[in-house]
Amino acid sequence: METVKEKKKGTDSKKTIKISGAEAIIHCLLAEGVETMYGYPGGAIMPVYDELYKFQDKLTHILTRHEQGATHAAQGYARVSGRVGVAIATSGPGATNLVTGLADAQIDSTPMVCITGQVTRQLLGTDAFQETDIIGISTPVTKWNYQITEASEIPEVMAKAFYIAKSGRPGPVLVDITKNAQIDAFDFSYEKCTGVRSYKPVPKPKMSAIQAAADLINSAKKPFIVWGQGVILGQAEQELKDLVEKTGIPAAWTIMGASALDTSHPLNVGMVGMHGNYGPNLMTNECDLLIAIGMRFDDRVTGRLEDYAKQAKVIHFEIDPAEVNKNVQADVAVLGNSKETLGLILPLLNENKHEDWHNGFKEKYKIEFDTIIKNDIHPTKEGLTMGEVIEEINLASNNKAVIVSDVGQHQMIACRYAKFSQSKSNITSGGLGTMGFALPAAIGAKMGAMDREVVAIIGDGGYQMTIQELGVIFQHNIPVKIVVLNNEHLGMVRQWQELFFEKRYASTVMVNPDFVKIAEGYSIEAKRISERKDLKSTIQEMMASDKPYFLEVKVEQEDNVFPMIPSGASVSEVRLK
Amino acid sequence: MENKWFTISVYSENNVGLLNRISGIFLKRHINIESLNVSKSEIDDVSKFTIVAHTTEKWVHNIVGQIEKQIEVIKAYYHTDDETIYQESALFKIASGLLFDERQIQNIIKDNNAQIVTVSRDFFVIAKSGRRSEIDEMHDQLKPYGIMQFVRSGRISVTKDEMKISSILKEF
Questions:
Q1: According to the CATH classification, is domain B4-84+156-171 in 3.10.450.710?
Q2: Spatial separation of the C-alpha atoms in residues A457 and A442, rounded to whole Å
Q3: B28: which chain A residues are within 8 Å (Cβ-Cβ)?
Q4: ipTM topping 0.95
Q5: What is the CATH number of domain B87-152?
Q6: How far from A399 is each of A53, A80, A392, A550, CA to CA, in Å?
Q7: Which domains does chain A have, with CATH numbers?
Q8: Which end of chain A is more exposed for a tag (fewer CB within 10 A), N or C?
Q9: Nearest CB to B71: which of A147, A198, A321?
Q10: What is the pTM of this model?
């Protein structure tokens, strides 16, 4: 807004200035504190790009190599920084290429604003060149969307877009702007949005619910916490830690909640879900009180719902009323922002230790360690495992890296074995399971947290879905570390084929190119290793580099991820092999 | 859980695209909208959707939660049939000659408490409001004589209990 104010001073005392819609969009972005955006130009968005050219000293635009990459980069940026990610594209195919990223951000509650160009107002509905109904297409995968057809709508709609994207349960917003609205001049002034009449972002916590929850927690003998991303989005990490430490309740996390509490915290008992830890899954069906905090009981977490925690009372701390009683019936629902509700309940809770109960988790961990973890991270067989690679990254980064994972076996292994000592460190596509997420998301993550080490862990399948984003890393010299765990297969699908489809490996064998040569084609330092003796030194070399670095690790081709709750089975039926 | 008839009432802003958002929530769950009506409501500048669906209470609860989450939706409710007063309206277009040739048609109109809306040289139009079954019954009675056109509206309904929408609006 500085520029606007300066101009105002220079001209007259009026509160508005006459500028084009395209310039107004830039001023809106600057007023919202946007510093970085990701996108791809094209015909219907060219007036905005022309302004981006003029404002390049204030606003960095990163040209991704595909619009999907722009959305995932914006997501990565948002997830590490807590700020709104911004992606921009042209109409038609530019807009439709955003859809996967929008859906990913919607299901994983990531604040993102996408701006698309649209054909001029008069051409709407004429099947004009690169016209597509992106409002219709994006409706089910956006928190809100809006088509601007007049320049004068821009300030109010942009302000609303940012407000909606980041408030309450965050999500993606798409603003579609016809070309005439970008070109036309109007009297611009900007005011941030502070509320929308029909939208209540955060329910007010009810003290009666807080008290009822506190009573249940204080009287529980075998209480168990499962937290999700709501703790991170609500910035309630400290409150969670205080609660766990005061009450002595063992706590586990969903994939989206990872890193909210230090992995090495004694009461952090691991991950729940399909490939989560043995103890937390089994104990879900043994606890007498399940305390769910900022999580939504995804089917990958609950397994068969009919057999999920039926013996337990359930407390659900949740910001989104539509999540309460959606999948799991709550005995007490505590609505509100997690920071506020956990802060309110804390003084009502008794200090406690649940040693016997906690020991049960430790015993289960020992079983899991002896049968699975040991072989995963300290293997004695010849081939390299994904787990030992993650373990070496932990050691080389001192558990401080941001781990960005793609989707599949390597993702489950990364989430199982990565150690986190600070929040917002596990960036992965949780709900949508979007292969191709990691490489562009790692670019955004690095730019959103330049002081942090960002390591992308990617399979050989997903890597090739957005491999073109190496061009961004090359062009802008973004020092992300890319680790491709190459098992020459679409590993997770292959695992399911082995276990549930009698080893009929339909279309899961990958014939891969020379990944090192490809990276080198982008002038990125690249190495390939296939032997254990080279692992530690190469990972140390990679982590010590201050430049982009590509590492391909040839891992065992037919390893499986365990424990596993087969699809549709109960959490009690978690398999160790 | 058994399927029942539910009437969903949605109070909202009057914005382009909201209908798409709301119908998409049904589409995603593969649940059919049996009837849909949009009109103004008792509050100035607030629209009201009246949607009828045949589903379980679990799903209608889920759907109403998702509808209410939409930014431009102020409040959504669901009710069973015995909690509401509801009606539909229908128009029958019949060839004018029949009105004079078939005296029974006049009886049908009278017995069903229907009204003749307009009469022209070629056709006349009968309006009938009431429950779906009443309209269906009248349709069956008229059918043998030949119906040139027929249309029935979506359900409109009011609840027996108060919907505290005005006080909710003040809270925002």
A1: no
A2: 9
A3: 140
A4: no
A5: 3.30.70.1150
A6: 40, 16, 10, 20
A7: 2-188 (3.40.50.970), 207-360 (3.40.50.1220), 382-555 (3.40.50.970)
A8: C
A9: A198
A10: 0.95
